[in-house]
Recover the amino acids of this structure.
């Protein structure tokens, strides 16, 4: 199953190194004037021609979208002017020049824009009727916004506050994907009420995409126990294709 990764212009060298050897679509030179300025693009650039790129090759696809999300300290650069709903804002990378209210407002505006990007991604996937589609969104870390005098992220795990370690995980499945994969959505909603961690992402994606490998650990698969008749669904899903973008950050 081909894996394909899409990177924005601000993806770090370390993050890029993780996917060495994978087909990668780098958007460093994107020039869409509505989304890019000064060598930096907003996260919506990741959706540009996404269906076209997915359909360029036959078969199932796993697409990893790597947005910048709400990464600090330049929260004000993470959203366009139309999403500047909460004011006053901190319009500087030097958080020391801003009040906590301004920093939180800028962060909340960036969250608002992130919601918009996810909504557009879901709409895009839902419109691809020739594919069964799914989305998994997972942030790698949270941000401190002044709680106990802390800002940004990167505290050692043993002492990091929950604002830096508790992150959102959002899933969406097209009706065709859920049916052909035999997903028990009520079971998954119940599973979502219980804690999970990043260690479960790897085996969860393998299980969801029915990848057979010794590296798969069913104990780490969030979908295990929420799939009906998994063996009988392989053939049923064959006439259709599966695309599964999964942004992180």
């Amino acid at each position: 199953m081909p894996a394909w990764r899409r990177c924005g212009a601000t993806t770090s060298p370390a993050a890029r190194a993780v996917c060495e050897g994978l087909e990668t679509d780098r958007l460093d030179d994107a020039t869409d004037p509505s989304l890019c300025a000064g060598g930096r693009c907003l996260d919506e650039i990741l959706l540009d021609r996404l269906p076209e790129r997915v359909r360029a090759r036959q078969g199932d696809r796993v697409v990893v979208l790597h947005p910048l999300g709400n990464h600090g300290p330049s929260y004000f650069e993470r959203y366009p002017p139309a999403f500047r709903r909460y004011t006053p804002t901190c319009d500087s990378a030097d958080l020391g020049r801003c009040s906590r209210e301004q920093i939180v407002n800028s962060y909340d505006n960036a969250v608002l824009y992130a919601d918009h990007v996810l909504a557009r991604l879901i709409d895009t996937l839902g419109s691809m009727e020739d594919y069964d589609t799914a989305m998994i969104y997972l942030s790698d870390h949270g941000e401190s916004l002044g709680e106990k005098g802390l800002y940004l992220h990167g505290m050692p795990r043993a002492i990091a506050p929950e604002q830096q370690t508790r992150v959102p995980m959002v899933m969406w499945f097209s009706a065709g994907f859920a049916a052909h994969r035999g997903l028990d959505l009520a079971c998954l909603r119940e599973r979502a009420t219980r804690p999970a961690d990043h260690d479960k992402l790897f085996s969860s994606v393998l299980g969801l995409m029915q990848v057979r490998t010794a590296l798969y650990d069913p104990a780490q698969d969030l979908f295990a126990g929420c799939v009906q008749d998994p063996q009988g669904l392989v053939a049923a899903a064959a006439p259709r294709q599966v695309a599964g973008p999964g942004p992180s950050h």
Notes: DSSP finds eight helices and ten strands in the chain. The chain has a mean pLDDT of 86.
